């Protein structure tokens, strides 16, 4: 008696024609992973180890960083690359474990909604950030705000 074993990596929807999004998603995970090693460890090193390290982190520290175009670009890249990386990774996990089409649709929908909301909120935080909010005590603000205190 012979037993036929199903190919374990058979895709749910076999790729036919046009752009192979699954392949580009696979490549994105590797390329963004490499970029994230630099971005995340650079971020942790500068925030936690350089100068006074973790003790220096307060509102003024963050406000100072977010007025520097270098850190604005760094933080934006980290936000977008990590969020899309995480969401695409979760999409893979949903595809691996959710077998019912309806469950998949709900989970994928939740992923898209939460990812888009966080991308908008995070990007607004970086670009609409006010380092010198009116009426704040001078000791909490960066020195360039010019508030006597
Ligand atoms: C040092 C930075 C990172 C590197 C080098 C990295 C690398 C990778 C790689 C290569 C994969 C694909 C694995 C596979 O297909 O089998 C992956 C999957 C994944 N990553 Fe990352 N990643 C990093 C940071 C992150 C961050 C910050 C998040 C969350 C926001 C995240 C969430 C995920 C998830 C959810 C998966 C899917 C796991 C799975 O399929 O079982 N990763 N990562």
UniProtKB/TrEMBL annotation:
Compartments, record wording: Membrane
GO cellular component, one term: membrane
Gene3D superfamilies with a match to the protein in the record: Fumarate reductase/succinate dehydrogenase, transmembrane subunit
GO molecular function annotation: metal ion binding
A Pfam family reported for this protein in Swiss-Prot or TrEMBL: Sdh_cyt
Stored InterPro entries: SQR/QFR_C/D (IPR034804), SuccDH_FuR_B_TM-su (IPR000701)
Transmembrane feature ranges: 27-50, 70-94, 106-129
Main subcellular localisation: membrane
Keywords, sorted A to Z: Heme, Iron, Membrane, Metal-binding, Transmembrane, Transmembrane helix
Protein name in the entry: Succinate dehydrogenase membrane anchor subunit
Organism whose genome encodes this protein: Pontimonas salivibrio
């Amino acid at each position: 008696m012979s037993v036929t074993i199903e190919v374990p990596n058979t895709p749910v929807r076999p790729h036919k024609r046009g752009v192979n999004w699954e392949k580009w998603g696979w490549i994105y995970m590797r390329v963004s992973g490499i970029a994230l090693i630099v971005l995340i460890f650079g971020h942790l090193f500068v925030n936690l180890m350089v100068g006074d390290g973790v003790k220096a982190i307060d509102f003024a520290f963050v406000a100072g960083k977010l007025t520097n175009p270098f850190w604005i670009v760094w933080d934006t890249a980290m936000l977008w690359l990590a969020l899309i990386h995480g969401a695409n990774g979760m999409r893979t996990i949903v595809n691996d474990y959710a077998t019912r089409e309806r469950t998949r649709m709900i989970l994928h929908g939740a992923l898209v909604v939460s990812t888009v909301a966080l991308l908008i909120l995070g990007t607004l935080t970086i670009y609409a950030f006010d380092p010198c909010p009116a009426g704040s005590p001078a000791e909490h603000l960066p020195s360039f705000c010019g508030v006597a205190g």
